[in-house]
Amino acid sequence: MKFLLAGGGTGGHVIPALAVARELRRRGHESFFVGTAAGLEAKLVPEAGFPLEFIEIGGLNRVGLVRMARTLVRLPVETARTAARLGRWRPAAVFSMGGYAAGPVVLAAWTRRIPMALMEPNAAPGMTNRWMGRVAGRALVNFEETARYFPRGKAELTGVPVRPEFFAIAPKPRGETLTVLITGGSQGSRTLNNAARESWPLFRRAFFRVLLIHQAGREAYAGIAREFAESGVEGEVLPFIEDMPGAFAAADLVICRSGASAVAEIAAAGKAAILVPFPFAAYDHQTRNAQVLARAGAARLVPDREFTGEKLFQEVTALAGEPGALELTGEAARRFARPGAAARAADILEELGG
Length: 354
Prior knowledge:
The chain is of the alpha/beta class.
């Protein structure tokens, strides 16, 4: 069978879809993607060896009026164009990760009566999945509370695909040195970078020994690395961490944003975390993701506007100073781990396509 996978723009949309495509390929099926030239799919999909068809569409949420108007004009045009192309492609079913790149695809699939499954990785669904969840065959969710956004009986708690290396990370006994991993994603985070800088003098005088591993992003790396070398704090600043599962395994504590992929990796690894949601995410979904874990004692949540160097130091010190706090938080996080998400998505696509 042949399957179409849609959704792009960010790694949170593309990487889980690629995991599903790889599982389908392992089972002998053919998969191809539809996305935009501006999204991360333009790089990651061809690198993974899958065909990629392009559409021209932009976002509708948290964008200016001019861009919104352009998107509203393009949406029916791209939907009609995609519907015509579906006649040539003839997929057995469509898999959508949501996002603006998936909009014309799922609308076109609906008009052609092609069965659809969607995956919603965040606690609060985005616009495309909110709309199409009513007509999709199945909705695969990452959080129990997300099921309420979809018709009764349609949602299934599967989690989102995470690399198996994260699930293989063993619990790490606390040693004399507290290893803290700080990562704002592949591009880095200005908030996390600035807070890390401000925290160095505080950690230098701390009552405990700390080692900081900081992924700063390629643009900010040179300046931060130069200053860190003079800070007197143990650790390393990197532009990008290729082996993120290895970095998680070495860490006692992770400080990061709370996108769906980051939260799923924290759960799979069973790591204590301080989550700093990106405040401009669509529907404020990163805050919703972090709140789910924080309510369960599986992470600390700090709003972006409050995350200074002093706050970073206070949160790390609180966890480091309370016996068993890191271990209990990590154990609570692991209860959110959902292995086998890609395989379950493939099962459902086979059912829909058959």
